[in-house]
């Protein structure tokens, strides 16, 4: 029989000692995007911890109200950064979602979640789905559907449709890319699911910059999804099998495994919490900015005004804030202007923008308003979900800005340097 802890069951229950570390000080509240928009205590980190602790102590059950407050959480982990008591909110939330998962998603979400989880974490299916989407757009059907508001009754699907502006041609990287210049080591590159299909240039530029920094780059063909989306949805078994498979897909002699998608890197760095046998692999995971900031890349001028949005799972999940900024500041001629509330979630949060489009939209509007204040024409950020979400928000507001991953600017600066010579 499984062990019980109040309303929670089994070994993946939220840690009661961790829940009790919260001293209810409220310091995290102003940093919480859902509290800022909704102003409800139970939609704040403190309120959610109160609910989780009450469930762990058997004072409340996992009711629909409980589920709703947890569903509305973005999992952005801004509360973790703010918390002076060091409460690890992210793992408490994930563990609670595993418990809620035992009852399945709320009926209204079942179909949509089934669709999302059968396509997004499967690179081949996602590629096929995007090819169909490309045809749909090219056929003019997309314009017709939008003009006639056919998707209006399916608000969540409509959110997905408006998110995708264009689907670039697929690109496959070689399995082995030799280092250039002074050899530094050997790294593996995670190509991701959304990243490989929607932002192939980011993977190409990442591989090229790593090689230029002196790394031999291994890009295993057999690599699948990292399981981050499943982790955030409480699908523990799926996360464990993806973690096991991904760790096995990369050679053991790599110095680092490099991710250029904040959500993937964050989940991979924390694999050992869910699957201790992956500790060696997880310990070698780095965000691309952490690696490149140690290198001496030849950079030519880019006369651009750029602002930087902190992806939640880079700033809060991985505590990587300075490395991307330092890299951008190294580009001659590039002016980096700080973005107010740069680490406030843009509303993307994995598939949150599809599951909770209304709240995601409010957060996106806040983000786009802050971007407009900077006067920057380029916004850099290290996560494909943020790139998609913010680009959509800027398009809809008519703001003339380009969204890029920092590696794209670095690659352009490398080209500028080559042209100078
Ligand atoms: S993870 Fe984000 S949305 Fe959830 S409680 Fe913490 S700050 Fe709020
Ligand atoms: S800052 Fe930390 S201790 Fe204070 S209320 Fe928030 S989670 Fe609890």
Could you explain the architecture of this structure?
This protein is of the alpha/beta class and 421 residues long. It has 24 helices and eleven strands. The chain has helices spanning 16-20, 33-38, 45-56, 64-71, 78-82, 89-101, 110-119, 123-138, 141-147, 155-163, 194-198, 200-212, 228-232, 236-249, 262-269, 271-274, 279-283, 288-292, 312-315, 322-329, 352-355, 357-374, 384-397, 406-420; strands at residues 4-5, 8-9, 176-177, 185-189, 215-218, 256-259, 285-287, 305-308, 335-337, 378-380, 402-404. The strands form three sheets. It has a five-stranded mixed beta sheet with strand order 3-5-4-6-7. A four-stranded parallel beta sheet has the order 9-8-10-11, with helices on both faces. Strand 1 and strand 2 (8-9) form a beta hairpin. Helix 22 (357-374) crosses helix 23 (384-397). It is globular. Residues 22-28, 45-46, 49, 79, 82-83, 85, 87 line the site of one iron/sulfur cluster (SF4).
